[in-house]
Design a protein that fits this description.
single chain, 406 residues, mainly beta, 10-stranded mixed beta sheet, 6-stranded antiparallel beta sheet, 3 helices, 25 strands, globular, binds calcium ion
């Protein structure tokens, strides 16, 4: 077996200075709930998401603090050990035998410790590391080592969560999604597009060559085929035995869970279109990252557009003025808001369908683009924490995070 190695960098995305103390939830905030840094990641590479959860933030200093590792075992977690880390300097490396959890621990001045804990057979080993001297005035070698391991280009976000100190529960699939901060008020009358869920034609997929074949019941003339290629997937579509979409890269990375496919006529030409989804996994809110492929009818052929969004669900397909739209979701941070503090925001854009393509269509509803503060309680209002100029920047960022034609 060929060793497969990749390092994913995990960093906290929340703005710690503003949230470690104070009143993150406004007047509803009470002190009997503790805030924890939480990384949700498959630490032991067994296909189940695990938790690395901090001790109370009040015990944290500049170098970081203690974290406990909980490995998912079926419907519960087993404590696998403890490590010391800074929530912004944790990286995870898997090879075929074991995992390494890399940490950088800042000391005084430029001095710090870089090293890892081996995770093997569900046991977390001791810290093994070296003293390095990075930063301004640090050595070239130390800087290169730190940059290589804590490569910010591969950042995966963690979350700051409220806990009552209890042993962690196994999270539910929809936990952490944007439903409590959606673009529409809870009682808003919004029509949804009905999408028909498709079952793969065969569940006997060969594990070494995974593929999914989807057909619409009663429509034997066309079929949609997804084939695993390396880490990613290609999609192809045939109509009456003819190729209507040649094999095209849909998602360039692996899938956590299963690929799903649904149909609806989104571009209203009388021919069913397809929506396919591949969740990327990752920790915390990153687990909501999902590639959504729109396979849209266009004359005799079909065209694929993939977008990356967060926690897509039925609620993201809406009818506005009788026309179908998709609500695209991103989560972005702003360091200095109107209250002088850093906050995170859900940014929503409307996408419309025209023939085989997808377009930004925020003009379809005056509420879009919508920017909602990700606070600690349900909220569906346009934020007042940002200036128009800040919102314009966020909006630009939200659309640059979309992965269009692969
Ligand atoms: Ca695991
Ligand atoms: Ca169509």
């Amino acid at each position: 077996m060929k060793p497969r190695t990749h390092i994913t960098i995990i960093c906290a995305f929340v703005f710690l200075a503003g949230t470690l103390t104070g009143t993150p939830g406004g007047e509803d905030w009470t002190d009997n709930v503790s805030m924890r840094h939480q990384f949700v990641e498959d630490f032991d590479h067994d296909g189940d998401l695990d938790l690395l959860r901090s001790q109370p933030v009040s015990s944290f200093g500049n170098a970081g603090g203690g974290f406990k590792l909980y490995l998912r075992e079926g419907d519960h977690y087993e404590e696998a050990g403890m490590l010391f880390a800074h929530p912004k300097a944790v990286a995870l490396e898997h090879d075929w035998r074991q995992s390494r959890i890399w940490v950088y621990l800042r000391g005084g001045g430029n001095v710090g410790k870089l090293g890892y804990h081996v995770l093997r057979d569900e046991v977390l080993g001791e810290f093994q590391g070296i003293e390095i001297n990075p930063g301004d005035g640090g050595t070239e070698l130390s800087n290169a080592l730190l940059d290589t391991i804590m490569d910010s280009a591969s950042t995966i976000h963690s979350t700051l969560v409220q806990t009552d100190g209890a042993f962690p529960r196994v999270p539910q699939a929809d936990e952490g999604n944007d439903a409590h901060h959606g673009p529409f008020a809870v009682d808003a009358q919004v029509s949804r597009v009905h999408l028909r869920q498709l079952e793969p034609a065969s569940d006997e997929a060969d594990a070494s060559h995974p593929q999914y074949l989807f057909t619409v019941p009663g429509q034997t003339d066309r079929s949609l085929l997804l084939i695993r290629r390396g880490e990613g997937w290609t999609v192809e579509l045939t109509v009456n035995g003819e190729t209507a979409l040649k094999p095209t890269l849909f998602s360039s990375y692996g899938t956590v869970g299963v690929i799903t496919a649904r149909t609806a006529d989104l571009n209203k030409d009388g021919v069913e279109d397809y929506v396919i989804e591949s969740y990327s996994g990752g920790c915390g809110l990153a687990s909501g990252h999902c590639n959504v492929g729109f396979v849209l009818s266009s004359g005799e052929a079909y065209e694929l557009t993939t977008v990356t969004t967060l926690f897509p669900d039925e609620g993201d397909f809406v009818l506005l003025g009788g026309e179908p739209y998709f609500i695209h979701t991103t989560l972005l941070g702003v360091e200095a808001c109107e209250d002088g503090r850093g906050h995170n925001f859900w940014v929503y854009n409307l996408f419309g369908f025209e023939n085989g393509s997808i377009q930004v269509a925020n003009t379809a509803d005056p509420a879009f683009p919508k920017t909602v503060w990700y606070s600690f309680r349900p909220n569906h209002s346009e934020t007042t924490l940002l200036t128009d100029a800040q919102k314009a920047i966020l909006w630009q960022q939200s659309l640059s995070a979309v992965y269009w034609k692969p």
